[in-house]
Specification:
- The chain is an alpha+beta fold.
- It contains two helices and ten strands.
- It has two domains: 46 residues; 131 residues, Jelly Rolls (Sandwich).
C-alpha cells in the first residue's frame, strides 16, 4: 500500500508538471505573437526625419584663439559671447551629426549679433565641410547622410590696423545657425 501511494503521488506530480508546462508554453507563445504584432505595427510608424546636432563634446578652440565669455549649443545653433581687442580672434570647430533616419541637406548659414559698425571692423568667416562661406549665405545644397558627421569652423577676427586707435569690442553676443531640409 505504501508503494501504491508513492506511485500515485509521482503520477499526480508528473501530470501537474505537464499541465503547468503546457500553460507556460501557451502563455509564452501568445505573448510572443502579441509582441510581434506590436513590433510590426510600430515598424511601419517609424518617423522618417533628419536630426541634426552640434556635438558639444567635440568643441575645440583653435590655437591662439581667445576663450569666449560664454558659449552654448542647441541642435543647429552655436551661441557665443566674446570680447575682442584689435589683433585677436575667436575660432572654434565643432562636429555636426545627422542622427536621423534620412539624409539632410544644409540650405543656409545665418550668423547674427553684429551691428553695421562691428561688421566693418570684424572679419567673420564660416567653414563647413572644408569650404569657406560668408557668414550669411542661402541656396546651399550640401548633403549630410544618415549617421554622417561633418565639421563647422567659425572664426571672428578683429584685424589690427597699424597707426589707428581701435576700440575694444566687449560682450559681443553672436550666433551661427545651420538650416537643413530633407535631401
Amino acid at each position: 500500500m505504501f508503494k501504491s501511494k508513492i506511485n500515485q503521488i509521482i503520477v499526480i506530480s508528473a501530470l501537474c508538471l505537464v499541465v503547468i508546462s503546457m500553460g507556460l508554453f501557451l502563455t509564452a507563445g501568445s505573448y510572443s505573437r502579441a509582441l510581434k504584432i506590436v513590433n510590426d505595427s510600430n515598424s511601419n510608424q517609424v518617423e522618417k526625419t533628419f536630426n541634426i546636432l552640434l556635438k558639444e563634446n567635440t568643441y575645440l578652440e583653435s590655437n591662439g584663439s581667445i576663450s569666449p565669455n560664454q558659449k552654448s549649443f542647441t541642435k543647429t545653433t552655436a551661441n557665443y559671447n566674446i570680447s575682442l581687442n584689435p589683433g585677436q580672434y575667436y575660432e572654434f570647430t565643432i562636429a555636426v551629426e545627422n542622427q536621423g533616419t534620412i539624409d539632410a541637406k544644409l540650405t543656409s548659414i545665418k550668423s547674427t549679433g553684429l551691428t553695421d559698425e562691428q561688421e566693418q571692423l570684424l572679419k567673420y568667416t564660416v567653414y563647413y565641410s572644408n569650404e569657406y562661406y560668408s557668414r550669411n549665405i542661402d541656396n546651399l545644397n550640401i548633403g549630410l547622410g544618415t549617421n554622417a558627421v561633418d565639421y563647422l569652423r567659425i572664426r571672428v577676427e578683429y584685424p589690427l590696423i597699424a597707426g589707428t586707435n581701435q576700440p575694444s569690442l566687449n560682450n559681443l553676443d553672436l550666433s551661427t545657425t545651420l538650416e537643413y531640409t530633407e535631401l
